[in-house]
Design brief:
- Helix content is about 55%, strand content about 10%.
- It contains 8 helices and 5 strands, in the order H-E-H-E-H-H-E-H-E-H-E-H-H.
- The chain has a 5-stranded parallel beta sheet with strand order 3-2-1-4-5, sandwiched between helices.
- Helix 6 runs parallel beside helix 7.
- The longest helix has about 45 residues.
- It is elongated.
Length: about 240
């Protein structure tokens, strides 16, 4: 019968069988390699998060026996401005720069809400209303410090925000010495942050942002600037 001679029904030759076997072996190899890489990435992410969290929750207050030229505080966290005003009042810096204030917030309102001394606010506090994020805070802070010829600046922000803030500042300027002054609202130095759900969520979000900032810092300046602009547009 004609069907008996149909080549489509014939068994595959040895080379075809070997080829299929080799392809299957390579496929299994790459699947295992991908699985191991995913496990490694997850392990590195979790390990990095633990190191990051332990670091920021154990940050201490720096020795400010020698006053700095100026003080910068980034808005967005509880007690930041109050802490910076206390440093200004104690003459740890000549002037205070508050970065990231909402455009609709008046100076008098900010002074009243934070409990700052009216005279001190009038003479020695500068306000930035243009910065929308940490990258913007860094850019505006450096403009302010440069305009005042400051070379040593105290940077006030919440403890979990310190690594990303310092990264953005040092990435933008190598000419100014920045001194991190962490504001700690909850004492977590005994390591019990891991048992507090809300604290873990805050730390995790900041850790992810920090990783993004580290990655962006490795990019060429042109690409990094384009990335910053894209982030600004997304936030707007």
């Amino acid at each position: 019968m004609d069907g008996l001679n149909d080549s489509s029904n014939s068994a595959p030759d040895a080379d075809t069988v070997r080829g299929r076997g080799l392809s299957a072996t390579i496929g299994r190899y790459f699947a295992r390699l991908l699985f191991l890489l995913v496990i490694l990435a997850i392990g590195l992410f979790i390990g990095g998060f633990i190191v990051f969290s332990d670091r920021v929750t154990t940050l201490g207050i720096p020795d400010l026996a020698e006053p700095a030229d100026g003080i910068v505080v980034l808005t967005g966290g509880y007690s930041r401005i109050e802490g910076a005003l206390a440093l200004l009042k104690n003459k740890r810096g000549e002037r205070l720069f508050i970065s990231g204030v909402h455009p609709s917030t008046k100076r008098s309102e900010l002074q009243r809400v934070t409990g700052g001394d009216a005279t001190l606010f009038e003479c020695c506090v500068d306000i930035d209303r243009s910065a929308l994020d940490t990258v913007g805070n860094a850019a505006e802070s450096i403009k302010w410090a440069s305009a005042n010829h400051y070379k040593r600046v105290i940077v006030v922000t919440n403890n979990y925000h310190i690594p990303r803030t310092m990264l953005e500042l040092t990435r933008a300027s190598q000419e100014i010495e920045f001194i991190a002054y962490p504001i700690t609202n909850t004492n977590l130095k005994d390591g019990d942050w891991i048992t507090r759900g809300q604290v873990v969520r805050v730390l995790l979000m900041e850790y992810i942002k920090y990783i993004g900032a580290v990655a962006r810092a490795q990019l060429p300046d042109s690409i990094s600037s384009a990335t910053d602009e894209l982030l600004h547009q997304i936030r707007d």
